[in-house]
Amino acid sequence: xxxxxxxxxxxxxxxxxxxxxxxxxxxxxxxxxxxxxxxxxxxxxxxxxxxxxxxxxxxxxxxxxxxxxxxxxxxxxxxxxxxxxxxxxxxxxxxxxxxxxxxxxxxxxxxxxxxxxxxxxxxxxxxxxxxxxxxxxxxxxxxxxxxxxxxxxxxxxxxxxxxxxxxxxxxxxxxxxx
Length: 178
Description:
This protein is of the alpha+beta class. It has six helices and five strands, in the order ββαααβββααα. It has helices at residues 35-41, 45-48, 63-74, 121-140, 145-162, 167-177, and strands at residues 20-24, 30-33, 79-86, 92-103, 109-117. The radius of gyration is 16 Å and the shape is globular. The N and C termini lie far apart (39 Å).
């Protein structure tokens, strides 16, 4: 599916009582999207299934955040992250994502499962938006994509290290401080 959408600059919201759910195969291709995901992202399930999850990736998201996410889940661990997504019409929505690897009965990793909730607005505005803007600025200073992601990843790692906590501790301290 060709997907040439530009950001509209309009933010859309979903209810705090709702949960966006998706599942992917090991390559990140969608194998399931619940009705909330379809409605908020502006796609029918038939348009999403088989597409890369990055179909909802917003260009304001630092690529290094996704490197951290992929490195973590490919290492068979769960991750929590704040993500700005883009709907089919260019509108955007923020989520607090919990992404986990899925395993079969033999323990073989078979795909990934993501539950996304409404993020705390104060955390977004005071911590995440400024951090991601700075990391994106660092990434955009590099013409080479690999160099950009490496520089952004280092900036993220340096920020976490400066807080003297693990990534997980940082994410949950942000949630509890808001």
